[in-house]
Amino acid sequence: MSTTRDIPALADAIKSGERRALARAITLVESGRADHRAEALDLLDRLGTDRQALRIGLSGTPGVGKSTFIESFGLMLTGMGKRVAVLAVDPSSARSGGSILGDKTRMDQLSRDPNAFIRPSPSQSQLGGVARRSREAVALCEAAGFDVVLIETVGVGQSETVVAQMADLFVLLLAPAGGDELQGVKRGIMEMADLILVNKADGELKSQATRTCADYAGALRLLRKRPQDPEGFPKALTISALEANGLSAAWDEMQTLADWRKDQGIWAATREAQAGFWFGEDVRHGLLSLLQSDPQMAAAVASAEAQVKAGARTPAAAAAEVLAPLQKRLAANS
Ligand SMILES: Nc1nc2c(ncn2[C@@H]2O[C@H](COP(=O)(O)OP(=O)(O)OP(=O)(O)O)[C@@H](O)[C@H]2O)c(=O)[nH]1
Ligand SMILES: [Mg+2]
After folding, report:
1. Cβ pair 150, 254 in contact under 8 A
2. Quick one: DSSP state of residue 59?
3. From ligand 1's centre to the CA of 78, what distance in Å?
4. Which residues contact 84 (CB under 8 A, 6 or more apart)?
5. Candidates 199, 202, 242: which one to mutate for ligand 1, based on the most atoms within 8 Å of Cβ?
6. pTM metric for this prediction
7. Please, which pLDDT band fits residue 95 given cuts at 50, 70 and 90?
8. Ligand 1 proximal residues by C-beta, below 6 Å
9. Is pLDDT of 196 > 70?
10. CA distances from 253 to 147, 197, 319 (A)
11. What pLDDT is attached to residue 204?
């Protein structure tokens, strides 16, 4: 990446919807270099937050059909004249090259659609870091005027929570299953879902998918009612990503829910809360990296951690001791 970038020009190019400019900007926000970081912040600042897309978080276990769904759902949306961006939040850097290759073939048509933008996940190891950058990538896609931003994550637990913090709607993709497998979906993840889509409702799996869907619908009814839901939500539907069945019904439900939340002021309140969350994350993360950037502090943290692990100190006392010099310096300044 070159070091001299014309940030105002990049901002203009993004606003006018140039996909290559958007791709370059995402690379910029993903960069760990301090000078890139400063440019990224400048860029995000210039772009502002006037444009809003519908941000849809999408989660599901490996092989459930996320890529196939994104391809057919994305094509349906671009067919309606909408512009669709696809981002992936991947907590594991261990994602194989094979699966990225698989994605290229599974999202073949969508990736060539001029009204779509697909960005594979950055290969970073730390979930927090990836998450912050993904959120910025979402903001870039909104500034570029996309109508829908799909944020995909592999369902492994923690990543759903992070994706839910940057999405307006959270969709859980599930496979047809036997009754006992139903327990496999963690309650916390069920509670996050706005829409459950039981995929692969086609061919031999169709009746099983219908039964599974009824089971999940029943399970959803047992959950505590959430203030962000109108009557009848969260919902479970069957779809076939492969045959592109049930996708427009799913889209209708998403819109119904989004419209209702907008009317009720829930949409805006959620976005405000999310902005607050990410601000807090940035402050916490910034404080930590400030600490780590001071060699003396970093050494003190490392030795305190070793003592804690060895059982020689309690975590609280060790943390307080490590932070004491900082506290003194701050007190001296005030
Ligand atoms: N019968 C049927 N098969 C499907 C459907 N959707 C996906 N599949 C198949 O399921 C397999 C996995 O689909 P993917 O779209 O790659 O699943 P994924 O969730 O993206 O998987 P990972 O990227 O590995 O997490 C492929 O063989 C698909 O063809 C569907 O609606 N019906
Ligand atoms: Mg996939």
Report:
1. no
2. E
3. 21
4. 74, 77, 78, 110, 113, 115, 116, 117, 146, 147, 148, 149, 150
5. 242
6. 0.89
7. very low
8. 60, 62-68, 99, 102, 106, 154, 199-200, 202-203, 205, 240-242
9. yes
10. 16, 11, 48
11. 95
